[in-house]
Structure formats: C-alpha cells, structure tokens
User: Fold these one by one.
Assistant:
Number 1:
Amino acid sequence: MAEIVLSGVSRSFWNPGKEIAAVRNLNLRIPSGGFIGIIGKSGCGKTTLLKLLAGLEQPDAGTIQCTGAAPRFSLMFQDPRLLPWLTVEQNVRLAFPAKGRFQKDLDAMLDLVGLGDWKGLFPRKLSGGMAQRVALARALCRKPQILLLDEPFGALDAFTRKQLREELSEIWKTLAMTVILVTHDIEEAVYLSDEVIQMKNGTIDAAIKVELSRPRDCRSPEFQRICRNIEDTLFG
C-alpha cells in the first residue's frame, strides 16, 4: 500500500489563447489503504486530478509524492475499452504479468470479479456490467497498490451500479489497496468512501469524513444526512 501527498499542485491548459486552471494549488493527503471519493460538477478538475495521480499529466507547480519505491498504479475508465476480437480471458491476459503462476492467478482474478464461468465469451455477448467487470479484472491483474477509477459505473443502469459498487467494496477490503474514485454520483461516493472530496473550480471545496460501518445502509438516516449535506454544498 502507499500514501499519496499532494502539495501545492497546479495544472493549467490553453484553450485557444486562454489559460484555464484545471487544478489550482491543491493540497491533499490520501492515506495508505484508504478509499477516497472525488465529486464535483463537470469541469471542476476531477479527471485532471486523476490523470495527475496516474502520471498521465504533469503538474505545472507543486509536488505529488508516494510512499514506497515506485508503487504500482492501475487506472479504470468509464468505457471498458475491450478488444472485440478477443474473449474475456484474452482481454484480461493482455495486461497480466508475464511472470509467476500465470493461469492460476488469471483464473483467480476472473473468479474474484464474477467472470469465472464467462471467460470464453466475446465482448459483443457481454452486458454492460459484465464488460466493466472485465475492465476491473484487467486493472487489478498487476495487483496495484493504488487503483484509480474514473466514473467506472457511470454508463450503467441503477441496479447494475448498485451491484458493482457492493462488489468493489468487497474487492477493496480483500486486496487492501488505496483507491481513488471520481464520480458524479453522491450516493456512490458516500457508500464506498472513507472520505469524500468535493472539488470546485480546480480546488478542494470540502472534505467530508464518512464514519459509517460497512456494509453501509443507503436508507439509514445518517447515510441520507451525509448525502444531503454534500448535495447542499455542491448546489447551494
């Protein structure tokens, strides 16, 4: 596992002739083994922050430091991005480490995400939820210490989202990773996260600790109170 510390991080882009500050002087500590949810309106800097953490973007100012020697990152997107001419197993195998007990570990990962009986199917035969399970297995196959999730369930129906977020919570506990989730879904963020970070105009507007026992009851008064407080802050 790995702790992440961001100090004074800024990142800007040019859109023709105009500088846009996507992330501004951001300070954040993500504890080792924690589950952090990041929410905010479109354009607030959530995805830019995730790309900075993944190393896909470099900050213009400030530092991003991780404990440990070169911790392993994995990134999962909203689009599963599967190769249509490969089966479930073959899609996951592309990202699997070449060393070690290859087939045994691959089978175990497919079982972990509930695809052990479906590994011979091609993507056209998969539901949206099953396709996202393939993408999750692919992200987990290198046993990352830090898992970055960019709205992984955003395109799914409400029932499938609920099922997958429950499974993700169990996988996080099983594999003991640090997870950073970007989402537009307040309930999803509260259900999964130890802390919910609200972003606004490239900065952290609020940080809300979610001190509820797991598994969480979305219908409980305390759960709903936290969701309402976040919604009031975002849209108030």
Note: The first helix runs from residue 46 to 54.
Number 2:
Amino acid sequence: MADNKFIAADGREIVLKTEHLCIQFGGLKAVDDVNLEIKKGELYGLIGPNGAGKTTVFNLLTGVYKPTSGRFYLCGKDLTGKTPVEINKQGIARTFQNIRLFNNLTVLENVMVGLSNQIPCSLPESILRLPRHRKSEKEYKRRALELLKLFQLEEYADYLAANLPYGKQRKLEIARAMATNPSLLLLDEPAAGMNPNETQELMDDITFIRKEFGMTILLIEHDMRLVSGICENLTVLNFGTELAKGETSSVLSDPAVVKAYLGE
C-alpha cells in the first residue's frame, strides 16, 4: 500500500518530494527551506533571478551537493545523501546549463553511454568482450538508434558530437539523459543560447517526451514564453527561498514575482 505522504490530493503519485531542503556554504544559505511536490507526468517549472539557487537545487537532487538539512524522495524512496551514480540508477537524470557531451564520441556512442547504467555484464566480460557483452552491446546499439530516431537525430548517428549544430547538441543531451530510463528528468535552462525557431522545436520535443514516455519533468528556464507555454505549475526562488508557487499563470502575474524577477 502506497504511503499517503506520496499521494497527492487528486490521487496521483508524487514522484519528487523535497522537505525543508537546505544547503549552507559557510555563512551563506544558498537554498533555504525548499519544499517541492511534483506529481507523476507533471511538467513543473523552477524559475527565479540569476543566483536564486535553482541549479543548486538540481545539484542537491543529483548528489553533487549533500544538503545541510532536509530530505528528498523519488517515488517514495529517500535519496538524501546518495551518490550521483546511485541517484541516477534510482531514476533521476539531468541536463546542464552548459552542454556536457562527449565531444570526441559519435552521436550514437553518446546515447550508448547513457544506457551503460543498465549493462548486466561484469567488468571482465566487458574487457574480454565475451558473448554476453557482445549481445548486450548489440541490444544497446539498437535501443540507442531508436532514441535517436525519436529525437530526429538518426541521420547524425555517426557524426562526432562536437560537429552537431548547437540546437541538435541540446537534443542529444536530452536523448542521452532519457537513455538512463529516468522517472524524473531535470532540464537546466535547455533553451539557453537558442534562436526562436530552435526554442519552439525544443518546446515541441519536451511536450513529446512528456506524452510519449509519461515523463515527469522539472525545468529551470529564463525564457518565459517557453515556461508559460508548457509548465503547469511553478516555484519561484529568490535568494534561495521560495517566493511564490502554484499554477503558472497565477504565479507569473504575482506582483512579488513581477518585481523580483520579471521587472516592474
């Protein structure tokens, strides 16, 4: 029987729950008492001015930082204090503000790296390329090609990642994150550096991911057209604390949010 703590009022499962999440660096509270509840299949936005603590929250959720206090749960499992590898295996994947691809690997190989957390082979089997390893490698190549096709990247499979146009590098990073089979996808400013056409294509891709995979998504973004176009609910951070939260249109029209973030 599911813990009622992880069931929302409408009966949906709460995929991500943070309780009084805090981190302090010396005398600076970078994140202070952040409480998120994101339901299964929800597309949730985390916004705020530069330096508000948004990426720090992502770093806490992925094990890069360990919280000073507070806890966070994925699908009811307490992941507080786990390593990045453990958290990824449990089902949280992310992208970064600055694209982090393996530039000297091909597009296909980048996605296959994302699949590596599901490889059942032992290290000796992989080093010696024993039959089970070869069989697994063939299967992961097939699955990687399927993902590339979903993201309209299959024609670039043999390109070096470094040679892709910027917008397609962003798509590849998302495809690689999806290869880890996450329950929760964290997107850190995916539209940064994109032109309007690329941003629209990204919006379509994110909507597609949510629909095709039933994916739960937490999005950091400064492009308010993108945020208002796809996010159901928002939390606004300012100086590491929650300034406002709720339904997107209500939050974006909140005078405190307009003053702190969007401008008078």
Note: The chain is about 40% helix and 25% strand.
Number 3:
Amino acid sequence: MLSKRQGKRIAQAALLGLLAALLAGCWNAREIDELAFIVAVGVDKDQEEEGLVVSFRIANPTALSGGDSGGPQGGGPGSTETTFTVMVKGKTVAEAVSRLRTQIPRRPYFSHLQGIIIGESLARVGIGEVIDYFEREEELRRGVNIFVTKDITAAELFDRARQKLITISGIAISGLLAQAPETGFAPVVRLGDFLERFTSPRSETFAPVVTLAPATAMSTAAVDQVALRGTAVFKGDKLAGYLDEQETALLHLIIGGFRWTTFPVSGGGQISGDVRVNRMGGSIRVIDPAELHFLITIQLRGTLKQVHSHQSIDGPQLVERMAYELQRMLQEKVVALVDKLKTWGTDIVGFGETFYRSHPRVWFQEEVHTNWPDLFAQSKVDVSVDCLIVETGSIIRSAPFPQERPSEPAQKEGASP
C-alpha cells in the first residue's frame, strides 16, 4: 500500500508529464518561410519525349506582402504579380515534384492547392497514374478543384493567362467557380467527387473545361483570360469527348448542381425570348429492368428574362406558350444529350447507380455490372419536363416594338413644306 507521501509524488510526476506533453511543439511543424505554397498544378503529356510536363503555380510571398518580388515572371522591382510559374519535366508527377525541389529554395506545400489542371493531350491517353499520385498526396485536400483543358495545354494556360482581376491563384480559378452555378455552363467538380465517380463501376466521371478567351469581342484582343467552357467527359481514365455550354446546362437539369441557367425559346415564329430556370426537382427511375427502360423527370420554375420580337400573343397566353415551347425544346435536347452519351458509352448521368439501387439482385445476378457501358448504349430513356413560368421580371407587358414606317412620297419641286 502506498504511503500518502508516495501517492503525492506520483501525482506530481503525472502532472509534470502532462504539462510537458502540452508544452511540446508539433512533431512535424514547419516554418512558413520555409514553404513554397503551390496554388495550382497543371499536368501535360510531354510531346518531345516520354513523360510529363508538370507546371506549378507558386505564391509569391513578397508580392503578397506588398514588397518588391525581386525575380522574373512578374518578379522585378515593384511587380504586383502574386504568383509565378515553374515548369518541370519528369516521368511521373512524383519525379517532377522531386525535381521542383532542386529549382526552388523552399519545400513544395500542397495544402493550399486550388486546382489540378489536366492537359487535353494527357486526358486522351489516360490519367490513371496521375490521379493516383494526387489521391495519395497526404497534404492535398479532397475539396481541391479539377479541370481539363481544351485546345490548349495546361503549360500554355499557366504561361499566357493574364487575368484582369488578379487573384491569389493568378488564374482566377476560385472566382470563376463561384460564378459557375449561376450559369450552369460548367460543372463544379472537386477531387473527392471526381475520384468517387472515377473508381465506381456504375458511373463515369467528368470535369469542367478550362481554356483561354479574349477579354473583349474586339478581333485584336489578346487571348489571355481564363474561361470555363463546358464539360470534359471520361470513359474509364480517358477523355471521351466534350459537352458544350448548352449541353452542360442540360446535364445540370438532370443531375442538379446549379442555381440558375438561361435557355432561348422559340416556337412557330410567333414567340421568341429567353427564360431563366432553376431546377425544383427531378429523378431517374427504372421503368422496366428487363428492357433497361428509364424515365427522366425534371421540374423547373422559370422567369421570363427577355422577349426578342413583337408578339402577336401577349399576357398570360404568352407565358403559357413560352412554358410549353420550353418544355418541348428541353425534352428534345435532353434526349439528344443522352443519345450522345450512349454513343460514347459513358454514363455520367447516373443510370447505372439508379439501376443498382433499385434492382441490386438483377445488377449482380444478370452480371449487368460487368457489361454496363455496352448495355447503357442499348438502353431506352424517356424524358418528361414540367416547366412553370412564374415571373415576368419587373414588367408584365413589353413596350411596343418600333414598327417600320411607310416611306413618305417625295415633295414636288417648288411645293411649300
């Protein structure tokens, strides 16, 4: 039995041990001035030799603090460039990161990464090994955004981008993604979501398309502004094709993921206008598992944003006719979109996931899962769209459109006006 004095000493020793543990620093602590903060990474297929070209967009701490950066790529005295680019070749991404450490005086740090940009040429030959690296990188957050380029390499994007509104990334990734749900013209895809689809046997993955565009409509304007342009669709780990902005908006009607998007409406030469819609609901259902028959239902609420021409129909009839023509148009275009995906054999909508959840025994017993891409191409898909236009903006009836006036007869010479 311990004496009172011994028990007190043991308690004091335990307290001292606890205090020592609390006062100890983090075992893997790093000084901030020893880190190179990577804000974006671009990966391209090396066109000259086997391997990759990896571009690193790195934060410039001196410029961010308001001082002179003292280096190239916006690094001269008085420069305001917040980032600079270093491009490295390597057989793999891991080798390129190791080589990067021989070219910069700080350790690369990925916890603040905003975007992974995959070049089109690499996406067409396969991205499996590249994705494996980013999935294993312990500093990388699964909320980082992922992109695929079109008509340009990731290296060219990093080199030529000169955003009018400078951001910490230097290429305005975060700002563009904040606007994407307001248009529906490009998806917002995080690395975690991309990986979930990438590794699923019941669906394929996709990513937003990023490219360069001119800042103005002038033909002489430099093509140096980063822009989102539709969706890159994968089959396995290879790029299958691109969806344009309107096809991307239609994809969002099916799967959600946007707040508003606008469609032009025209019918019978009598009505023409723009309707902004938001998705109130929707689903994919299996009608007949034996026939692989699906039904897509979409419920929309719309706002009449603009009337393009003088109308012979006005008031409530105009709104009803607009809604009818919008429903008809969207049904046709959604069917065409699904047909395109079936031609590619890539299910990014989620038909396979719906089939698995509603008929799991059929999915496995009939071995549907092993042949799903081919079976998806043979499936039958019906579409039902229900749209109600509930707002007409701040006016109910358009102002009269100017009518062409008949030409007046020429005055006779000498006649008084």
Note: The longest strand covers residues 271-288.
